[in-house]
Structures are given as C-alpha cells and as structure tokens.
Amino acid sequence: MKIAILGAGVTGLACAIECERLGVCADLYERDHTVGWIWPSVSYWPSIFFRDTGDIVDYLKKEYKMDLNPLGECKNIVLKSPNQTASINGKLGYFITRGKGDESIESQLKRFLRKTAIHFNRNADYKELSRNYDWVVVTTGNVIVPRDLGVWEDEGLVRIMGGVALGDFNHESATLYLDTSYAGSGYARLTPFSTTQAIIGLYTIGCDAFDTERLFSVFLQKEGLTNLEFIYKLLPPPFSTGKVNKFQVGNILLAGRAAGLIERLLGVGGPQGIISGILAARSIINNEDYTKQVETVRNHVDNISSFRKVIEKFDNDDYDKLIATLNTPGIKQIVYNTNINFVDLAGRILKHMTK
Ligand SMILES: Cc1cc2nc3c(=O)[nH]c(=O)nc-3n(C[C@H](O)[C@H](O)[C@H](O)COP(=O)(O)OP(=O)(O)OC[C@H]3O[C@@H](n4cnc5c(N)ncnc54)[C@H](O)[C@@H]3O)c2cc1C
Same structural domain for residues 144 and 206? Predict the structure, then answer.
C-alpha cells in the first residue's frame, strides 16, 4: 500500500508514526528543510477543553501510545477584562514547545519515526501525489487543498501579532486578556516559555495587517506591558478559520488544521491534529471509514466553536460580568476544578440554540 503524507507538522508526523506501527512506511513530504514552525512558540492545551478525555497528555499516551513531554504544567490562569480580574488555580493544562528546537513537539514526534523517509524541501502537489499513491493524507496546516477540493467552509481570517518578550514571569501561569477595544472578539495571551521569557500574542479576527499591528501597541499600552523588551515580534500571514464539509475526497484524506480541526474560540488544535493524523492512518490501513472515525473529534471542535457566536456579541461590560461571575464563590470551582465536561456540554447546547 502506497501512502503519501503532505506536511510534516504534528498531524502528518502522528499519521506517519501510526502508519509505521501498523506496518506501512509512508512517504512524508515537507516543504521546509526540517520539522517545526520557523518561529519558536509555546502552545497551550487547556484542560477545560479536554474533559471528555481526561488529562490530555495521559490520554495521548494511553490511547495512542504518544508519550509526549510538555514544557510544563499550567497551574494558574489569570483572566483579565477591562475592569475585572480572575485568578484560577488548579491542574489547568499543559504548555507545549513548538518550533525547530530539540524539545519541540514536532522534534519529539519525529524521534518516534524509525523507517519513514521525510522528503524535506518538497513543496509537493497533492494532485500529482493522488495519481501516484494509493492514498494521500493532506496535513499541510492550511486551507489551500480543502479550498481547491471545494470542501472548505470559511469562517473568517485570524491575524496574530506577537513575539517573545523578556521579563519576570511565572512559568506555570498564563494570562488571557479580553478587551474589545484592541482584540474585538479575539483575545490576547501571555504564555510563558520560562521565568524570563514569554510569548505574547494578540489574535484579531477580520482585521487587516496594519490594524492588527496598531492594536498590538494599544494592547501593550492598556495592559501595562510596554516596559517589556521583545527579542522579536512577528506578524505572520493570516489564518483562515473554518471547517470542511468532507474529510475525504476520493483517495485524499484531510487531517489536522487542513481539515479545520482547530476550535474557533481560542484556536486550540494540537491534540486534534495528532488524533486525526492517527485516525487517518488507521482508517486507510484497517479499511475503515475515516469520516466516521473522525466524527468525535469534529463534534468536539464544533461544540467548543459554538461559544464563538456568543463571544462575537460581547462588549466589554459583558466580559466584565463574565469574569465577575467566575469570581463568585463556587462558580470557579464548577467550571475549572471539577470533572464536569462543562465546555462540551454548554457548547452542544449553544450549537443547537444558534443553528
Ligand atoms: C499562531 C498559532 C498559535 C496556536 N496556538 C495553539 C495553542 O496554544 N494550542 C493548540 O492546541 N493549538 C494551537 N494552534 C493550533 C495548532 O498549532 C494547530 O492545530 C496544529 O499545528 C495543527 O498541526 P498541523 O500538523 O495540522 O499543521 P501545522 O503544524 O501547520 O503543520 C503543517 C506542515 O505542513 C507543511 N506544508 C504545508 N504545505 C505543504 C506542502 N504543499 N508540501 C509539503 N509540506 C507542506 C508545513 O511546512 C508544516 O510543517 C495555534 C496555531 C497557530 C497558527
């Protein structure tokens, strides 16, 4: 069986690993000269989004034999709106290193591969691969292929302006800033690399590059972060958010971000990428229906994404009320420190209400 995987990001690597485990060596094509994002970064895997599976790092290990080393545990989240702050403590998820360094999740996954050839510097064409291989798994992390296949449903452009700042940080704590004056219905986030470095980013929705850059300065000023020294700042090309209406077209399977498997509230998609990559490999090799296999992941992403429709209507008073409510005794406990699958449950209800 000849399998080509297009893109050696977390999804493509997970797919290749599972192919090997099931006895098939895939050809993995990567346009870059090595694995990992060009800009070093820290992803956040919030535990509140993974109540359905329990501890996500344990789950990936037990269920999918992916034994990954996070950068660290998130034990505190600070939520800030213009006039309110909530500080939440608990087992709140993981920080994950991204990029080309040895400890990045991409490098960790690459080390699991024993026999698979990664063809670097190959900006492969999916149509050509689909003629030459039995199966092609598209894991390019962008919407070019799904759009070309006519299966992409667009839900807007996200721009990210951010960089690595030097300062004095709590390496177990992330801060989420919610303020429509600079973020609109997006948000800003401070995620620590270490006690001295943090990734600080503003996620805007539907703004152009010029505006996003300007709003990033407003954000730094409003939140008292102008004293931080940035090692670098970046404004990468925008990302399309949305979903696919088909996960498979002929012998082409879509997985990870190329399949829209990134929730549209905060942009979390790492675990869904890994899982969908594995499911694509299993479906092909075990002759199973990929669309059915990936349904749970898609529903999970859709449930969380339903919160976006609500957030889009929020003004700063609503954010203040939301955070004040989180500070009410008992509420924080219910949302963050119980095992109730709060986000999926509420999301499922919202999905029906906003249909
Ligand atoms: C700025 C940003 C912040 C994020 N933060 C978080 C977070 O905090 N938590 C979280 O869980 N998720 C986060 N995500 C989402 C998460 O990073 C993605 O869901 C995840 O990277 C998806 O993995 P992927 O392998 O599908 O795509 P990618 O990681 O983008 O990998 C795609 C790979 O395909 C390669 N490629 C593309 N086109 C071709 C081609 N034609 N030929 C060959 N190779 C090709 C690329 O070079 C790349 O290596 C964030 C995403 C972004 C962009």
Answer: no
| CB neighbour list of residue 197: distance below 8 Å, 6 or more residues apart | 164, 165, 166, 167, 169, 231
Is 158 strand, coil or helix?
strand
Q: At residue 153, what are phi and psi to the nearest 5 degrees?
A: -110, 110
Kindly give the number of the ligand 1 atom that is closest to the alpha carbon of 11: 25
347 C-beta closer than 6 A to ligand 1: no
What is the extent of the structural domain holding 162?
157-234
Q: Cα–Cα distance between 347 and 353 in angstroms, integer?
A: 10
Indicate which CATH number applies to the domain containing 192: 3.30.9.10
- The response to whether residue 273 sits with its C-beta less than 6 Å from ligand 1 reads yes
**286 part of a folded domain:** yes
The mean pLDDT of 192-214, rounded to a whole number, is 95
Q: Measure 321 CA to ligand 1 centroid, in angstroms.
A: 34
Q: How many domains are contained in the chain?
A: 2
Q: Is 224 exposed, middle or buried (0-12, 13-18, 19+ CB in 10 A)?
A: exposed
Q: Is the pLDDT of residue 353 over 70?
A: no
122 shares a domain with 14: yes
CB of 8 closer than 6 angstroms to any ligand 1 atom: yes
Domain shared by 228 and 112, yes or no: no
Under the banding of pLDDT at 50, 70 and 90, the label for residue 327 is confident
Residues 132, 118 share a domain: yes
Confidence bin at 349 (pLDDT 50/70/90):
low
Claim to verify: residue 148 and residue 19 sit in the same structural domain = yes
121 lines ligand 1 (CB under 6 A): no
Q: What is the pLDDT of residue 352?
A: 64
Residues 188, 134, single domain; the answer is: no
pTM: 0.95
First to last CA, the chain: 42
* Residue 49 sits in the same domain as residue 26: yes
